[in-house]
Write a structure and sequence with these properties.
- With about 650 residues, the protein is of the alpha+beta class.
- It has 6 domains: about 170 residues, P-loop containing nucleotide triphosphate hydrolases (Rossmann fold, 3-Layer(aba) Sandwich); about 80 residues, Elongation Factor Tu (Ef-tu), domain 3 (Beta Barrel); about 110 residues, Elongation Factor Tu (Ef-tu), domain 3; about 60 residues; about 70 residues, Arc Repressor Mutant, subunit A; about 120 residues, Winged helix-like DNA-binding domain superfamily/Winged helix DNA-binding domain (Arc Repressor Mutant, subunit A), CATH 1.10.10.10.
- The strands form 9 sheets. Strands 7, 8, 9, 11, 12, 13, 15 and 16 form an 8-stranded antiparallel beta sheet that branches. A 6-stranded mixed beta sheet has the order 2-3-1-4-5-6.
- β4, α4 and β5 form a beta-alpha-beta unit.
Length: about 650
């Protein structure tokens, strides 16, 4: 069965709700105040099956005070039913609702000329001509205009048939995407608990599924699913859907929140977008504030223009929108902007990047260039053109992926990429591998070798430029280190990472370092990193001092002198003397037994041999006294030596004695 969402639009009291009721047999006005006042205040819903087509109607309020409620429903329209009363023709909210539908890129629609029984044929024809002129150049140019009367039933059969025909041409929704449902209503049903409703944007849902409630970041379980007013085993993308949630209180949910596949999406407080102003909009200045509406959610946005200082009516601009509250947004999502005060619709736009960095003035040209790549890879400027909700793993995906990754020097995990694109995991990996393996001959312009897969498990990618920049920082830091520390062979790897890769993923640093090793410019020995071919070139006085240190410790045996005393007698300054000592310790010529005690390795190894002989001749157990006698040292040296051998697993302490292992 084909599913399509039909949304009403039009001026207050033009008969939208009456028309839906006449078509479906369901009065969409559910609130007592709506019935008392005779106008729609909030969204209403109804369903109609025509053959193998199921239409879900979203009836919206027409009064100017309730445009925000209209916007909460308009984002899910597949077809707009533009309702114009024959006795009043086009009115202010007709124009505003129609502008909203154009900005949201609703692809198709029908005009219902209501109350046609109240006017004569001449007036009806004049209204038709006015409507035709009004719709000229828009997505509804040439759309069927059907005179109807909800009171007499005239034209309803023709309108139903036309709705079914248009619905059959609607693009099929993709049920294979990750689940996403903006919530437009939440209520409690006796015996069931909390129920939320919305138009299912993508994916599918079944009873028992686990979902995530955003922006609360709370995992929830689906108790039951309804669509079309009846329980179903599975609701799919494009359907009006009601979900009964287990263990969730009503006050924890509400319009503007969203249900999504668990762990796949994240909310954002900052987006880069292409914005469009209406003809009647005032000039929009840099850093202006506006009401931001997307799907069922709304907040305040501060608009930072990336090109110029203002936007003129009918104008377009790339901008960064900083939101007062976090929302679930993805590239391709359409939104509406309403003036901060007075609150009127001034324009709208489309999300290009849902997780951009803040753009300083000097970075704006680069940001604009990257955003244009994203637009060229599948976005459309005109509000009457449809942005595809799904882009298959192809060159378009690769271009978009390259642009996103190049704007994120820190590198991106698979979860980052899914949250920023809405693509499936296998699509992300396919596009990444195609980019990473592209040879300059067959890569798209500007994308050759622009992406590196720096880790397969976990899957992490980075731009080739980011990896190269990190490699350049590593080389510069090693050169600096060697100049400052001529007596040290190399720098600890972790120190190099901290100084060259702060704020980027460790895998990006590792890829940069590995590349330098493979190219022969850097060598890694254990935990030390150095420039390849780097050796220590000691000056004559340094070589003499090094030999002097070693000789004194060899001669001292186990009764070594204090380190400070040895270093003080060298023919070099204290800083170089300390580095010479560190060289001997690093090369394991000397052994640091304790903080105060340093011995020559020959003396320590000789003592190891004595312990092994003791175990053979006298057994494996010895006390401190026996150890002092064996080593020929005082207690001052015996205790640190025994503790050292405990750490080295040569001995194990048991009470006051040791067991030789």
């Amino acid at each position: 069965m084909t599913n399509a969402i039909v949304g009403t639009a039009g001026h207050v009291d033009h008969g939208k709700s009456a028309l839906v009721a006449a078509l479906t047999g369901t009065d969409p006005d559910r609130l007592a105040e709506e019935k008392r006042r005779g106008i729609t205040l909030d969204l209403g819903f109804a369903f109609l099956d025509i053959g193998d087509v199921r239409l879900g109607f979203v009836d919206v309020p027409g009064h100017e005070r309730f445009v925000s409620n209209m916007l909460a429903g308009a984002g899910g329209f597949d077809i707009v039913l533009l309702v114009i009363a024959a006795d009043e023709s086009i009115q202010p909210q007709t124009r505003e609702h129609f502008d909203i539908c154009r900005l949201l890129a609703i692809p198709r629609g029908i005009v219902a000329l209501t109350k046609s029984d109240l006017v004569d044929s001449h007036t009806l024809e004049l209204v038709r001509l006015e409507i035709s002129e009004f719709l000229q150049g828009s997505f509804l140019e040439g759309a069927p205009t059907i005179p109807v009367s909800a009171k007499s039933g005239a034209g309803l059969e023709q309108l139903s048939a036309e709705l079914a025909r248009v619905a059959a041409t609607a693009a099929e929704k993709d049920c294979g995407r990750y689940f996403r449902l903006p919530i437009d209503r939440a209520f409690v049903m006796k015996g069931f608990g909390t129920v939320v409703t919305g138009t299912l944007v993508s994916g599918q849902v079944r009873p028992g599924d686990e979902l995530e409630l955003l922006p609360a970041n709370r995992r929830v379980r689906v108790r039951g699913v309804h669509s079309g007013g009846v329980p179903v085993e599975c609701a799919m993308a494009g359907q009006r859907t009601a979900i009964n949630l287990a263990g969730v209180d009503l006050q924890e949910t509400g319009r503007g929140m969203a249900l999504a596949a668990p762990g796949r999406f994240a909310c954002t407080s900052q987006i880069d977008a292409r914005i469009t102003l209406l003809a009647g909009s005032p000039r929009l200045k840099h850093r202006a504030r506006a009401h931001f509406h997307q799907g069922t959610s709304q907040t305040i946005a501060e608009i930072h223009l990336l090109e110029g200082s203002d936007v003129q009516p009918r104008g377009y601009a790339l901008a960064q929108l900083r939101l007062a509250e976090p929302l679930l947004l993805l590239p391709g999502d359409r939104f509406i902007l309403r003036q901060f005060s007075p609150v009127v619709t001034i324009g709208g736009g489309q999300v290009l990047d849902a997780f951009p960095t803040r753009h300083a003035a000097k970075d704006r040209p680069r940001a604009v260039a990257q955003l244009r790549v994203l637009e060229d890879a599948g976005r459309r400027d005109s509000p009457d053109r449809v942005n595809p909700s799904r882009i298959n793993p192809s060159r378009v995906n690769e271009d978009m992926l390259a642009a996103l990754v190049s704007s994120t020097p820190a590198g991106m995990t698979i979860d980052n990429l899914i949250a920023r694109t809405g693509w499936l995991e296998e699509e992300v990996q396919s596009a990444a591998h195609a980019l990473a393996n592209a040879a300059p001959a067959n890569a798209s312009p500007g994308n050759a070798q622009r992406l590196r897969i720096v880790s397969e498990r976990p899957f992490i990618v980075a731009s080739a430029d980011a990896v190269q920049a990190c490699a350049a920082r590593i080389l510069a830091e090693l050169d600096r280190f060697h100049r400052k520390n001529p007596l040290l062979e190399g720098a600890p790897k972790e120190n190099i990472r901290e100084r060259t890769a702060a704020g980027i993923l460790p895998e990006v640093f590792r890829a940069a370092l590995d590349g330098l090793v493979v190219s022969g410019r850097v060598a890694v020995a254990g935990d030390l990193v150095k420039r390849s071919g780097r050796g220590m070139d000691l000056r004559p006085e340094e070589a003499l001092a090094k030999e002097q240190i070693e000789r004194q410790f060899v001669q001292a045996g186990l009764a070594a002198p204090p380190v400070e005393q040895v270093l003080a007698g060298l023919p070099v300054e204290a800083r170089r003397a300390e580095k010479l000592l560190q060289l001997l310790l690093r090369d394991q010529v000397l052994v640091r037994v304790s903080r105060e005690l340093v011995l020559h390795s020959a003396a320590v190894n000789k003592l190891r041999e004595l312990l092994a002989e003791y175990k053979v001749v006298r057994g494996s157990r010895l006390g401190v006294g026996e150890f002092k006698e064996l080593a020929g040292v005082s207690r001052k040296y015996a205790i640190p030596l025994l503790e050292y051998f405990d750490r080295a697993r040569v001995t194990r302490r048991e009470g006051d004695a040791r067991v030789i292992l």
